[in-house]
Design a protein that fits this description.
This protein is an alpha/beta fold. It has a single domain, classed as Rossmann fold (3-Layer(aba) Sandwich). Helix content is 29%, strand content 24%. Helix 1 packs across helix 2 and helix 5 crosses helix 7. The radius of gyration is 18 Å and the shape is globular.
Length: 241
């Protein structure tokens, strides 16, 4: 069985890893134990509680997903692709922008568990044909060449076994001049990498950006972004054909 490449909730059969919660897509595994809250005393105010880690990571990942969607500049009639869609947060945000009949949304994820979660979350849009979901490897997508205008993903690329193959396949399905955007919190990714959670040095933005350039993308840039108190990184690129 190949390694699941989607960051987030593991397959139900997988053991629960002891990892930094920030990178999860905000949905706890069904078998996960409830988080114990601890009171914090505050002078002159009622007893407060520390934020629930599940709530915090859900908020962080909602910010990352919505930011990845906005990076692409999605237009109402665009065909759009999300890589590693997880439970469907980004798909849900993108679907609200596709108001014209030609606007179509495609999601791919290697995890059967995530594929099912997103299908349940977006069942009405899937039934209507507005959204199509595929359980597959990003390096072998069942999509036609030059099919999509916009691509987005977050918490994803550092789990691809081969960055070059993944980037080449994404380039294949994008239209000339198509735009791709991704978001990540580099500090959290580096923490995961220190525990050897990723294949080789794939987690390094430099490795990902070099793979994009080698596959035909240009204008590949990374910038720091800020949303309230959350600092994250955004990588932009354009498919040249």
């Amino acid at each position: 069985m190949p390694t699941v490449i989607k960051l987030g909730v593991p397959h139900p059969a997988a053991p629960q890893p002891n990892v930094d919660p920030v990178l999860s897509l905000g949905v706890p595994h069904p078998a996960a134990a409830p988080t114990q809250r601890h009171p914090v005393l505050s002078l002159g105010s009622p007893t407060l509680q520390r934020p629930n880690p599940t709530t915090v990571r859900s908020y962080h990942n909602t910010v990352l997903e919505e930011s990845a969607v906005s990076l692409c500049g999605i237009q109402p009639g665009d065909p759009v692709l999300e890589l590693g869609h997880g439970p469907g947060l980004g798909l849900e945000a993108a679907a609200t922008l596709l108001t014209e009949p030609t606007g179509r949304l495609i999601g791919v994820d290697y995890s059967q568990y995530m594929h099912q979660m997103a299908g349940d979350r977006l069942k009405e849009l899937v039934s209507s044909g507005k959204v199509s979901l595929y359980q597959c490897d990003v390096a072998a997508m069942p999509l036609a060449e030059s099919m999509v205008d916009k691509v987005f993903h977050c918490n994803c690329y550092y789990y691809w076994p081969d960055l070059r193959k993944g980037a080449a396949e994404i380039h294949r399905v994008m239209k000339p001049g198509g735009v791709m955007g991704t978001t990540l919190r580099l500090s959290s990714v580096a923490s995961f990498a220190s525990r050897s959670e990723f294949p080789a040095e794939n987690w390094q933005p430099k490795a990902y950006m070099e793979a994009l350039r080698a596959s035909g993308f240009n204008q590949v840039t990374m910038e720091d972004q800020q949303h309230k108190h959350i600092t994250y990184q955004a990588i932009y690129d354009t498919a040249e054909k």
